[in-house]
Write a structure and sequence with these properties.
about 40 residues; mainly alpha; about 80% helix; rod-shaped
Amino acid sequence: MDVLYIGGLAVFAGLTYALIAGCEKLMQYRRGDRGATGARS
């Protein structure tokens, strides 16, 4: 039972970390897009 609890906690922590990292990357991308430097054209 403890293994299931710890495993679920690890999965939840991993998903939370991935969500935060994805949001930060999205914000960086949108901030760079707002400058209209044309780096991706």
